[in-house]
Amino acid sequence: MKVLVTGGAGYIGGIVTHYLVSLGHEVSVLDDLSSGHRSVVPPAVQLHELPLSRVGEVLVPRAGYDAVVHLAAKALVDESMKRPGLYWNHNVMGSQALFAAIRAARVRRLVASSSCSVYADPGSEPLTETSRMNPRSPYAASKLVMDLTLAEEARTSPLAAVSLRYTNAAGAFAGLGELHEPESHLIPNALRAVSRSTAMPVYGTDYATPDGTCIRDYVHVGDLARAHVLALHAATAGHHSIYNLGSSRGYSNREVISAVERVTGLSVRIAEHPRRVGDAATTVVSSERARRDLGWVPEHTEIEDMVRDAWSFYRACGNVPVSTLATSARRE
Where are the domains of the chain? Predict the structure, then answer.
């Protein structure tokens, strides 16, 4: 297939792009590089350095695209609370521009990256695709609007559409990992903390969980890439499908930090902070529907495996001081 990956210079998008190329697909990337990196895009892949709002310049009928994988989004919950208009403009209006271009170019398949943050706080029960909706941030609300709009696009056209909802992507794959700035994810922030001897912020230590910190379901980024490709092939014309991706197993912030300490052999110094607005106490995800319909089963569910992959990438890209590397090598 000829596939356009929006956000294909980012963390997940870059890995999805590499995975598609490895399977023999003809791939192009659209990314404005506001948070992505040109170096992530494979040399043989054409990069259109454009905002999502201008995707119609790439998705034209004569271009002959068969499918789109949509991963371009603003994705910082804290930032969305402070700048909701930015998230509405990019995630909602940008997606609207994409859907219009898809319709005009008669692209037949679309897989969109959504989020489990669209659901209400489920407590200790795993989230399913029928769980109650209650987005708690502008970011989450923008993802829900995208999904609802996509459902209507599929209902009123031959488009075969899939939304994939997940929580925390983690790890590294094919030599690629997280290069966000600012970084908001727990594992890379913990790796930075141990490598730079700085304090690791932990937001909220009084949740109704065994150790007082948030519990999250982590998905290895390589498993996510595979899910996007499986969904691309399984999409049904005129239908919008939703699949949650997770392991049905949660790890608390303190458990993740302990895994970082075991993998690196170094101690993480914690700085406790109040809860952040919009954070749920527990988010664990059931992927039974994806298992049944897509044949998707996560291959990497242990948090230490994800941390180990992330740590290997972190060291390989030169983010760790030589003295720390020497100490770590002696302890491993």
Answer: 2-170+220-245, 186-215+248-286+300-331
Distance of CA 293 to the CA centre of its chain: 21
Give the separation between CA 71 and CA 90, rounded to whole angstroms: 12
Residue type for position 223: D
Span 178-190, pLDDT tens digits? 876 777 789 999 9
The whole-number average pLDDT for the span 285-303 is 95
Which residues are designated catalytic? 139
**Per mean pLDDT, which range of 14-18, 225-229, 274-278 is the poorest?**
274-278
Which CATH superfamily hosts domain 2-170+220-245? Answer: NAD(P)-binding Rossmann-like Domain (3.40.50.720)
CATH number for the segment(s) 186-215+248-286+300-331: 3.90.25.10
pLDDT digits (tens, 9 = 90+) for 118-131: 999 877 789 999 99
